[in-house]
From TrEMBL:
It is a multi-pass membrane protein. InterPro entries: L-PG_synthase/AglD. It comes from Sedimentitalea todarodis. The chain crosses the membrane at residues 6-25, 37-58, 120-140, 146-167, 193-211, 217-236, 268-287. This is Lysylphosphatidylglycerol synthase transmembrane domain-containing protein. Pfam families: LPG_synthase_TM. Keywords: Cell membrane, Membrane, Transmembrane, Transmembrane helix. It is found in: Cell membrane. The keyword Cell membrane applies.
Length: 299
């Protein structure tokens, strides 16, 4: 486990060092030093709102699974998990921690289900606008000039996703199927769909705000294409808090939207710093012991 974390830390560090090595450091430094605090504040506010809404989504999922979880408790645990995911390689240590911290004696399964399904719902909410935005961008001329192979890559990803779903549905593993069975019920409820749309909007807005903070105004088409692609790169597990991959993706994609690689890297760094700041309320929440706020209150 420690070796895996060290490898992820090394990969994340190596990627960001490589990105910085090929960028315009003078321009990058000037943009970061002159960052607009108002837009940085908007980014932090957006990310904080996302955490609050994600905690609400987790509470709804847990309640649907029969696991009583007060919102105050889910909010505190979600902030704590977000902070841990920012500083521990891999991006899931915080989720493992919140699973263990809300587990009832002898009922690890439901706690794990609630966390896994909530995270899966969040990933779907991030990926769907990207797929829809890319499809629309490729179909409507006059927007971002994507490389010729983009359409083929998108089709291949769609086929791979369908194949994976078919393989999973065909596996004779009733226990595994029952574990993920509530996922479809969760993602298709109207309140979850509305929450997913709002969170996806705030995610894109937060990164847009970080770009504005360093002096970059992205075109409307980039809001539903470039930004989701940059955010998706943070899902790569070989990193710490998405560092390195996010900046690399932004450096590669921002030129497609009429910006420079240095502008993309600056936006990625500003976004990463805002993510850390937005997770700091976890320190205040940790002052209060979780034992003081039990999941199931005595009658």
């Amino acid at each position: 486990m420690m070796l895996q974390r060290l490898i992820r830390l090394a990969v994340s560090t190596g990627v960001i060092v490589l990105v910085l090595a090929v960028s315009d450091l003078a321009d990058l430094g000037a943009r970061l030093r002159g960052a607009d605090l108002r837009w940085l504040g908007a980014c932090v506010a957006g990310l904080g709102a996302i955490t609050c809404l994600s905690a609400l989504r987790w509470r709804w999922v847990a309640r649907d699974l029969g696991l009583p979880l007060p919102y105050a408790r889910s909010l505190r645990e979600y902030f704590f998990a977000t902070l841990v995911n920012q500083v521990v390689p891999g991006g899931i240590a915080g989720d493992v921690a919140r699973t263990m911290r809300v587990t009832q004696p002898g009922d690890l399964r439901r706690a794990a289900q609630s966390v896994v399904i909530e995270r899966a719902t969040g990933q779907i909410a991030t990926l769907m606008p990207m797929v829809l935005g890319l499809t629309a961008s490729l179909a409507v001329p006059g927007g971002i000039a994507w490389p010729w192979w983009t359409g083929g890559a998108l089709a291949c990803l769609a086929l791979l996703f369908c194949a994976a779903c078919i393989v999973q549905s065909g596996r004779d593993d009733p226990d595994r199927r029952s574990f993920f069975a509530p996922l479809w019920t969760t993602v298709r409820t109207r309140r979850q769909i509305a929450l997913a749309v709002l969170i996806a909007f705030l995610l894109n807005f937060s990164f847009y705000a970080s770009a504005r903070a360093v002096g970059t105004i992205l075109p409307p088409a980039a809001y539903f294409t470039v930004i989701p692609l940059v955010l998706t790169s943070m899902m790569i597990p070989m990193s710490v808090g998405g560092w390195g991959w996010r900046e690399g993706a932004a450096a590669a994609l921002f030129p497609l939207a009429g910006a420079t690689a240095a502008q993309g890297i600056a936006a990625g760094i500003a976004y990463g710093a805002c993510m850390l700041v937005a997770a700091l309320p976890a320190l205040a929440f940790l002052v209060r012991s979780p034992a003081a706020d039990p999941i199931i209150k005595p009658s």
